[in-house]
Amino acid sequence: MYLANISHEQMSCSTYSSLSRTSTNKSKILHKSPNLIQLCMNSDENYACCTMKKLFSTSCHYSLNQCDQFGCNILMYSLRYQRYRLFDILLNEISFDLNIHTKDQENNTILHYAILYGGNNTQIIEKLIEKYKKFAMNIDERNNFGFTPLLLDENDACCTIKKLFSTSCHYSLNLCDQFGCNVLMYSLRYQRYRLFDILLNEISFDLNIHTKDQENNTILHYAILYGGNNTQIIEKLIEKYKKFAMNIDERNNFGFTPLLLGKTISFILDSNGSKRILIG
To answer: Which InterPro entries match (predicted)?
Structure first.
């Protein structure tokens, strides 16, 4: 779940300190990408874009192809943090030595990231596919979970799932990855709510909703965490829990029940001036 669990603390030293050092060093130095990656986290995208352009207009040589411990490079992080202008600059203005063949530790390609984090910005995906075609790259490479980038697109995923379970072939929805997560959890993790609804209500005949991940999070924990303001998801899931006499108050390894988790998130959001519907 590296796509989901990347934190600021997992990055290397401060961008600002590294940039100040390079301004006094006129020799040609190869700088590690994690320092540049922190530009993707900067809340001011204008600053990040200007800084990136300035860095690559100097005589110093910076590498855009260095990856962090998760196998992610700066292009992936620009998508991960929705820095779309920065992504465009990297891909189209200073891409002379940028390796777009890079894959992270879960074998996700740049195109997987574009599908996951590109939002409704179809231009990003179109431009990236143009690059793939230019270099005769395969756009249908699968990650460690068997997903091609296009399968991560919700419309394609819904059609594919329905087609698979309308045939005589037998597919298991209960297989879990190394983190103990099954397809139902991932449909919530990546906000694929239509897919979640299809899995839960249309082809759920052998779906085990008792599954817990390695941290003992239940499907209901995931619904609270990733369901956003889509209360219908939580309501339908609670109906299933009641139908099978399941306990909705199971605690994860951190002592949180789904309800307590929901109230904690609500409190944090309310403290920041956001509104959220409390569950229960």
So the answer is: Ankyrin_repeat_domain, Ankyrin_rpt, Ankyrin_rpt-contain_sf
